[in-house]
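Incident log, structure service

09:12 report received: a user says their structure output differs between two submissions of the same chain.
09:20 pulled the input from the user's history:
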Amino acid sequence: MMRSIVGTMISVGLPVNKSILRFQNQFGFIEDIWPYETIKKDYYRRGHNHIVDFNNEIFDKITKIIMQNLSDFGTISPQVILHYEKNK
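09:34 re-ran on a clean worker, output below:
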């Protein structure tokens, strides 16, 4: 659970140290129970880190929504969307 939570926080751009501290605070793992350094070592050994590129993903989503709306209103044809998707 720790690796998933810390990894998710890191994936969305939070630094490792802040991700671990946030995990400790949220779940009550004070230093005496589960030390920061122990969590950090475990995460680096066995955790997974998938960085999310929010800038490109968000703008791609916005563009798709706009193009779909324009197609629904008849402003552009569905072929324009297919051409856009093909040439990305």
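09:41 both user submissions now match this output. Likely a transient worker issue. Closing.
09:42 reviewer note: The chain is about 70% helix and 0% strand. Residues 54-73 form the longest helix (20 residues).
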